[in-house]
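Sequence in, structure out.
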Amino acid sequence: MNKVQEQLETPALLLDKLQLLNNIDNIANMASTYGVDYRPHIKTHKSKDIASLQINSGAIGLTAAKVGEAEMLVEAGFKDVLIAYPISHPLKIKRIQKLREQARIVVAVDSFEQASRLNQAMEAEDPLEVWIKVNSGLNRCGVEPREEVLELAADIGNMSGLSLTGLLTHAGHAYGAGSISEVKQIAKQEVTSITESAQLCEDNGIPIKHRSVGSTPTFQFYENMEEITEIRPGNAVFFDMVQVGLGAAAKEQCALTVKASVVTAKHNRIVIDAGSKTLALDKGAHGNDSIQGHGYIMEHPNLVIGSLSEEHGIIPVAGDEGIQVGDVLTIIPNHACVVANLFDNYLLHQQDEVLDTWEVTARGRKKITEQRDAKH
């Protein structure tokens, strides 16, 4: 048993410090190559410690998916946060108003109705900075490129409580790509959806200062970035088996792993203490079918975690694999973002030694803050 395994109880979430730093540097270097800024999405790691590393590496600000994540960042002292989600609930808007007292907060908008709700709340304050969310093909949130962007931009221009300063998009449908060539085509569409929409706005007298794109599968394959101002990859801080399956990363680049112990070893199955509450059930988002099982076992790459119950992972075997009760396995998760959200802490390690424990700081923030605000 190595030093790391001697210092932990399983299941445990491990974070390789050197690979983490390499991944952060890779994002910064790609941004520099493009000649743009970078504003990483923290929904992957939810950690103030990792956010600090990203700012120290040159990030101009941070992106959050939830108001609770933004609250964590502002409480930790970060001063520039984009909430890349169309916020409209009155309690969430009140929380945003409080955050604006301490930091620059930008909120994504994707409809007249949502913008109107924000505007009504902000009319008595300094205008809230908003960016229009553009649908570049994911077909989730976002208005359609060009004409619909222009229409919403014109509407926002008549709202005294809002200030439109940018456009953003997320090409999450790249996770369903079947090849790198398809990922590259999606990356091209992602950029075009923003540049053409921004140009149409400016041709109609509406300036668009910020032009933001962001997706881990696509961020390494952008072209014609002259009219883009920033990138926002999130998962690239860790990478995972979904990215490996897409060809966007190698297993060696995956900084996040789960340690799990063998609790049962039978002739036809191995059972580990990592189930769906540890590894999650995600086998690839948006239609990608490159994933086998529920994580990659580094010590036994020929074996597959075939099924999960809440606390058990089942690995079918055909015979003696030399695995015994008490053995510890290292698993690269399928989807690092959801796995990180299932743990309270990361165990930061380097060269076979645990260096520190870092909190998954924003985990559970949504429930806690909303209940607190409801009482007041």
